[in-house]
Amino acid sequence: KFSRNDVLILTIQPRGTGDFLTPSSLPTNKDATTLEARVLNVGPTYLDVAVPGGKFAVAFGPASNNRGEEGKGDPGMRVRVDRFFSDVPFRRMVAAL
């Protein structure tokens, strides 16, 4: 479960939805294409994440709904999301104080 201000690692899944559990799709793989992001908001079926300007397109190529000069990206692109750092311990410490 994700929460606001969690730091995430986004990893491109080059073969689509079927490769989430293969060693080559893990963010720890030396050949993996990864990007760090931060959770802004959590909804029932979505995450709003922030990525430094232009970093998504540089790492993964343009998004499928891109409106820029780069054109539209692959509509079949899949990204794996792993929590890299959670703010839960910090919130627990603040609540305890």
Account of the 3D structure:
This protein is an alpha+beta fold and 97 residues long. 15% of the residues lie in helices and 29% in strands. It has 2 helices and 4 strands, in the order βββαβα. It has a 4-stranded antiparallel beta sheet. Strand 2 and strand 3 (47-50) form a beta hairpin. The two termini are 25 Å apart.
Radius of gyration: 15 Å
Per DSSP, the total helix count is 2
- β-strand amount: 25-35%
- Major sheet: arrangement of strands: 3-2-1-4
Number of strands: 4
Taking pLDDT < 50 over at least 5 consecutive residues as the criterion, the unreliable ranges are: none
Mean pLDDT: 80
List keywords for this structure.
97 residues; alpha+beta; four-stranded antiparallel β-sheet; 4 strands; 29% strand
Give a short summary of the structure.
With about 100 residues, this protein is α+β, with helices and mostly antiparallel strands.
List the SSEs and their pairings.
Blueprint: E1 7-13, E2 34-42, E3 47-50, H1 55-60, E4 78-85, H2 88-96
